[in-house]
Amino acid sequence: MALPQSLRTSVTPPELELVASQLLIEIVPLISMEKTAFISGAYGPLRPPNKAKIPLWMAVNLKMKKKCHIVAPEWLNVDYLQDKLTQETTGPSFSSLPFRFTEIAKVILDVASDDVENPDKLRSLLKDLREARQAKSREGLKTLDHSELSLSNLCSMEINEIRPYFVQSMSILTQLVRNPGPDPLRNP
């Protein structure tokens, strides 16, 4: 059962994964299947060993039934993530990553770790990347201004994590700007 909106502060990570599961991903089918129509669109035909693009939710379903291999996105490899981690730890700004990289990587590593090279190293790099980006987010929030916050290249999960803090902080800052209160240095 979903919580009432008044009790929810943000979208849950599983809900973000559900949204990300609509994105198309490549697979190598192990079965033949004609073009199939769903509410979200028609996908197929699937003809082994030709690659096909289908939604992540469908790829997960086929993978769990051992009817396909999931082809990892080009960014889900050790070299790419190591390069992004280096950028995160040496530069002041966020490196550019796919908007839903966290969710997609988690789903693929949970369901199809046998389809990616070096899954343990990938998990470690993703964890390090997340920690480096969270540290930058915290630094950015320290410079919070009542008029704006500029943290470009944030991903959906990161935006979701800081949203409750950001909304509450902006509300307080806006109230302080409108009603600054008495000046403690001025004599009454």
UniProtKB/TrEMBL annotation:
Residues 12-71 form the DNA replication complex GINS protein PSF2 N-terminal domain. Residues 75-175 form the GINS subunit domain. Its main location: nucleus. GO terms for cellular component: GINS complex. It holds the Pfam family Sld5. The keyword Nucleus applies. It comes from the Eukaryota. The keyword Signal does not apply. One of its GO terms (biological process) is DNA replication. Keywords: Chromosome partition, DNA replication, Nucleus. It is found in: Nucleus. InterPro entries: GINS_A, GINS_bundle-like_dom_sf, GINS_Psf2, PSF2_N. Belongs to the GINS2/PSF2 family. Component of the GINS complex. This is DNA replication complex GINS protein PSF2. It comes from Hypholoma sublateritium (strain FD-334 SS-4).
